[in-house]
Amino acid sequence: MIGRWRYWRLKTKLLFLTLFTSALGISLVCISLILVENQNYRKQLESELHVIAGILAEQSAAALLFTDREQLGSIISSLKRIGTIRQACIYTPGGGVLSALESQDTRPCPDITQPLEAGFVGDAYQLLIPVTLDNETVGHLYLTSHLDVMRNHIRTFVLVTIAVGALILLALVFLALRLQRIVSGPILTLSETAERIARDADYTIRAPVSGTDELGRLGNTFNEMIGTIEQQNRRILESRDSLERIVEARTSELSMANRELEAFSYSVSHDLRQPLRAIEGFGQALEEDCGEQLNDAGKDYLRRIRAASVRMASLIDGLLVLSRVSRQPMENESIDLTTLLQEISDELMNIDDSVPTEVNIQKGIQVVGDSRMLRVAFQNLLENAWKYSARVEKRRVDVSAVETVSSITIEVRDNGVGFDMRYIDKLFVAFNRLHTPSEFGGTGIGLATVYRVVRRHHGEISASSEVGKGARFDVTLPVSRR
Amino acid sequence: MDGRSILVIEDNPDDQILTVRALKSASVDSPVIVLEDGEEALKFLFGDGDQPSRNVESVGVVLLDVKLPKVGGLEVLRHLRSSPSTQWLPVIMVTSSDEPADLLEAYRLGANSFITKPIDYREFVEQMTLLARYWLQVNRVPNASAVRSL
Questions:
Q1: Does B96 touch chain A (CB under 8 A)?
Q2: How far is A323 from chain B (nearest CA, A)?
Q3: Nearest by CB: B119 against A269, A282, A309
Q4: What CATH architecture is A330-478?
Q5: Mutate to test the interface with B, among A269, A317, A321, A327 (most CBs of B within 10 A)
Q6: Is B18 in contact with A271 (Cβ distance < 8 A)?
């Protein structure tokens, strides 16, 4: 019960405390009253019996002296009128019984030659006094009294006390309830108000406050506090609304810009390629139809025109891929990177088998990301590995992965020409190249695209190399945050 | 071939010339009809009303550019597929870009093939030849005696 004490309502606690203390007090008062009354009544009974015994001794002294049994008998029987006397015996100085008052439930008169204590014995009070006449003992008087009367009296007293105690307790319950309403009422109202505010998040609600006592002050302070919260809340909501409006405006600007960009890149891919196709196509037609009319220089120019248009087209294609990996929505899927890398390397092997090539791709590399974008990225990295190792005796490309708790790093290594680490800051910037076109062809967009793909996956890319000793690219992708 | 023509719907004059030249240099001897835009193509195939014109029967395969002025290539394709007389006409969509959205939309609307015009003219000639020949072949009406002998 005490363990649940803290779960009780304040109202119940107050009521319980009041009633418990009161009941304890009333019980203590009742018990002590009963004990005192019991004691008093016994003393009263004792002295009453002594008085009766004294009178009786005086009356019976003469009759004892003359052994007047008749007289003694009438004295004894007069005792019947006193309800409290149960037994009376008159003895000769030698201890013989001269006269006795007995009833059915009394024992025979006791033997007084043996010592006999005055006082409460069993269910009766007993008394033995000498009967004297002129300071000479003429006999003894033995009296016992009923305790029934006393018991009845005490019982009545206990009942009355309990009844009064119960009445007082009842009155106290009533008072306690009133008191509780005065004390816990405002607290309950306050707590209900607080609950309502918390539940509905409605900070316009105020607690009703009455009086200027501590509870009144508590209510006022509470209301002030809610007022402050209401103001702050309003300010927060206002600033949130204005932020939302700003974000909305920005979003619509952004999506408009995005749509324009999409339309732009669509039209770039259609419209820029068309003239190139015409240049290339008519160049071809010119060579086929009018080739004989051209000298060698003319044929060379024509070849250069056509090669330039093809290069331009691959630049446009590169830019389109770059713009696509930047704006395309990202998918988040599980990818078997080993298989993907193997497919790319098989394709590259088919295209360029001029150099004996050894490819080692670690088995079971799994990543999470957008498969199309990652394909573009690793296509570029492997193409680079192929391209820049085209002049070694035996090409070697290694791909391995190192996984930590939060990320996976994929290392792509080749044994090609490598690059000068002094220019590393230009490596991932579009249109920047570390090799001349006559050394190695390229658009300068590939690694920029790789960088963009990796960044969109919240990953990192780093590169290291030494001229003539191959290059190494480390792509670190975060492990699934699902 | 069976004398049915190849319908080229292409707005760019350079591409018109190059396409016709590609077909010729690949020795595709079917007549080639060149139309400038989607509106003209619909007029040619359906006349002024919604009824198919006689021209439909003479067409063996359609080379349809995606990006056309006025009525776009995909719109023309939708028209062709919604009319019973042109529903089964082979249509090869031709485009300059490899925009994936166009390709998906074209196949969804019922295109038979899709070519991204390559920059390299020789590649274009090869692709064009293969596709035009294939679809002309597929769309050929079996001759009556062959059917009877089955």
A1: yes
A2: 12
A3: A309
A4: 2-Layer Sandwich (3.30)
A5: A269
A6: no
Q: Which CATH architecture has domain A5-170?
A: 2-Layer Sandwich (3.30)
User: Cα–Cα distances in Å, from B36 out to A184, A343, B55?
Assistant: 91, 42, 16
Q: C-alpha A387: how far from its chain's center?
A: 60
Instruction: Work out the angle between the directed axes of helices B38-46 and B73-82 (0-180°, nearest 10).
Output: 20
Structural domains present in chain B: 7-137 (3.40.50.2300)
The CA distances from residue A335 to A331, A365, A373, A451, in Å, are: 11, 8, 11, 19
Q: How many whole angstroms separate alpha carbon A417 and alpha carbon A422?
A: 15
Q: Nearest CB to B99: which of A269, A278, A313?
A: A269
Is A328 near chain B, with CB under 8 Å? no
**């008159």: which residue's tokens?**
A90
CA A416 – CA A393 distance, rounded (Å): 10
ipTM of this predicted complex? 0.77
Cβ neighbours of B69 in A, within 8 Å: none
Q: Are strands A136-146 and A85-91 parallel, antiparallel or unpaired?
A: antiparallel
Contact (Cβ atoms closer than 8 angstroms) between residue A472 and residue A411: yes
What's residue A208's pLDDT? 84
Write out the residue limits of the CATH 3.30.450.20 domain(s) in chain A: 5-170
Read off the pLDDT of residues A270-314 as tens digits, 9 standing for 90 and up.
Answer: 778 888 888 989 998 998 888 889 899 998 999 899 888 888 888
Contacts of B121 in chain A (CB under 8 A): 277, 280-281, 283-285
Who among B97, B118, B124 is closest to A270 (CB)?
B97
Q: What letter does residue B140 receive in the DSSP assignment?
A: P
Are residues B53 and B79 in contact, defined by beta-carbon separation less than 8 angstroms? no
CB-CB neighbors (< 8 A) of B95 in chain A = 270
Q: What is the mean pLDDT of chain A?
A: 85
Q: pTM value? A: 0.51
Residues of B whose CB is below 8 A from A271: 96
Express each pLDDT in A373-383 by its tens digit.
Answer: 999 999 999 99
Residues in A touching B11 (Cβ below 8 Å): none
Task: Provide the pLDDT confidence category of residue A360 given band limits of 50, 70 and 90.
Answer: very high
Span(s) in chain A for CATH 3.30.565.10 = 330-478
Site of tokens 């405390």: A17
> Could you give phi then psi for residue B116, rounded to 5 degrees?
-95, 120
